[in-house]
Specification:
Layout (H helix, E strand, L loop, with lengths): L14 H4 L8 E14 L2 E8 L2 E8 L15 E10 L7 E12 L18 H6 L1 H4 L3 H23 L3 E2 L5 E2 L11 E4 L2 E5 L4 H11 L1 E9 L12 E10 L5 H21 L1 H6 L12 E3 H12 L11 H15 L3 E5 L12 E2 L2 E5 L1 E6 L2 E8 L4 H10 L8 H8 L5 E7 H9 L20
Parallel strand pairs: 3-5, 6-10, 12-13
Antiparallel strand pairs: 1-2, 1-4, 2-3, 4-5, 7-9, 8-9, 10-11, 11-18, 13-16, 14-15, 16-17, 17-18
Helix pairs in contact: 4-6, 4-12, 8-9, 10-11
């Protein structure tokens, strides 16, 4: 009888193992994909692409025990050779090839020049051949940084006593309603794809006090802009026993500080590849919604046209204003008008035309919406009635409040937008693995 006892150790080393200087001058075995081959007469540089970077290998005719002419770019291989110091090579080392075994070979030439430092092709071409374009080192680095953002979100919130939850994405009713819902037939019953985990995470505050989730959300909005998607990943949290909505902003500030430090420490290679300077997060200014509109109107001479909402141009100008005046990369805009916020948003007791809510702008783009929620059942049902809501499909949600809920609030962060602004891209599709918009359902 044989048993599986755990992870099987491979003879093939990863880049982290090759960085051990005691291995210099030793014969080692590695595997990877041939990223590119640069032939220079009797010598050739063979660059292997591995999960954590590139490894330069040197082929010398007459020394290596294989014929390089039989090897193609994009082949998956297992190679053996002597590891040597080479300051000009990636990682300061190179492998002097002795043996090479092809594990699999491509059936066709590469359709995109992935070995180039910058993939000079259209966004449409990159998205049409996404799994190929992401083999480019710079393209791949974007999503390693996105991984770091999610890791920072999870690690920070675990450290703050949050419980991770997983809520359904198909439901009878959505948190925000409206016309931007994907409707579907669910075994002959009407259903929708969730716009947000809002209702579920609020209910779970009554169970765990502090909860979070990272998951897709869906918006059936007929837009085709550089900042919108019909499916995106939302980083959501909800926390109970808050004193004010400023407690939520403080948690987000802490998350950003923790995450930027994490990226600088564990993702320095990707930051260098993309030439990124991390934004400032030591302190983030906050400004009321109405005051923010006045400030940009006064400084930039832009007439206030939408008194109850921020237009994209206004968001950009607010970001510009706080960068120029306070050298701030982020700014919290607070007290949004009640008529533009969902029914569960807590109205400002000093002026119920506004809510105890906020958006976080990063470089002039909204990446977060959050605030304090109504926790009193009577207040909640009265606001629903004032908005003409029947409550159908929300019975269990309302019952949760009928049996007691603590003061609470939360937020949702658009992962792709945050990554987009961090990297300095102009289109959110650049930081979405497989975008879904008006025209794209594939790949």
């Amino acid at each position: 009888m044989e048993f599986v006892t755990g992870v099987k150790q491979s003879e093939c080393l990863e880049l982290s193992g090759l960085m051990d200087k005691t291995r210099r001058g030793q014969q080692v075995k590695v595997n990877g994909t041939i990223h590119t081959i640069r032939r220079m007469g009797d010598v050739a540089f063979v660059v292997l692409r591995k999960r954590d970077g590139l490894l330069q290998c040197v082929y010398e005719e007459g020394t290596a025990e294989f014929d390089l002419r039989q090897v193609k770019e994009a082949s998956a291989v297992e190679a053996e050779g002597v590891l040597e110091e080479e300051t000009r090579a990636p990682g300061g080392m190179e492998l002097r090839l002795k043996k090479l075994r092809v594990l699999s070979a491509p059936a066709a030439p590469m359709p995109l020049p992935i070995a180039k430092w910058k993939l000079n092709t259209s966004l449409e071409a990159k998205l049409n051949m996404r799994s190929i374009s992401l083999r480019n080192i710079r393209e791949r680095a974007k999503f390693k940084l996105q991984e770091g953002i999610v890791k920072g979100f999870r690690d920070y919130l675990y450290g703050q006593g949050f419980t991770e939850i997983h809520t359904p994405k198909i439901g009878a009713r959505s948190a925000e309603g409206g016309s931007n819902l994907f409707r579907l037939d669910y075994f002959h019953r009407p259903a929708v794809l969730q716009q947000s985990p809002q209702l579920y995470k609020q209910m779970m505050v009554g169970v765990f006090d502090r909860v979070f989730e990272t998951a897709p959300v869906f918006r059936a909005e007929k837009h085709n802009t550089r900042r919108h998607l019909n499916e995106y990943t939302s980083l959501d949290l909800e926390m109970g026993y808050i004193e004010s909505f400023e407690d939520i902003m403080a948690v987000e500030t802490g998350f950003l500080q923790y995450t930027m430090e994490l990226l600088g420490r564990e993702y320095a290679k990707e930051l260098k590849i993309l030439n990124i300077t991390l934004p400032k997060t030591d302190q983030i200014p906050m400004v009321r919604f109405d005051r923010a509109k006045e400030l940009v109107s006064e400084k930039y001479g832009r007439k206030i046209r939408a008194p109850f909402d921020l237009e994209p141009e206004e968001e950009a100008l607010i970001g510009r204003y706080f960068k120029e005046e306070y050298d701030a990369d982020f700014v919290f805009v607070t007290h949004y008008p009640s008529k533009k916020r969902p029914f569960y948003a807590m109205d400002d007791p000093d002026d119920p035309r506004y809510t105890l809510s906020f958006d976080l702008l990063f470089g002039g783009l909204e990446i977060t919406t959050g605030g304090q929620r109504i926790h009193d059942c009577r207040m909640l049902t009265e606001k629903m009635a004032a908005r003409g809501m029947s409550g159908e499909g929300l019975e269990q949600y309302v019952d949760t409040f009928r049996y007691g809920m603590p003061p609470h609030g939360g937020l949702g962060i658009g992962l792709e937008r945050l990554t987009m602004k961090l990297i300095g891209e102009e289109n959110v599709r650049e930081t979405t693995l497989y975008p879904r918009d008006l025209s794209r359902l594939e790949p």
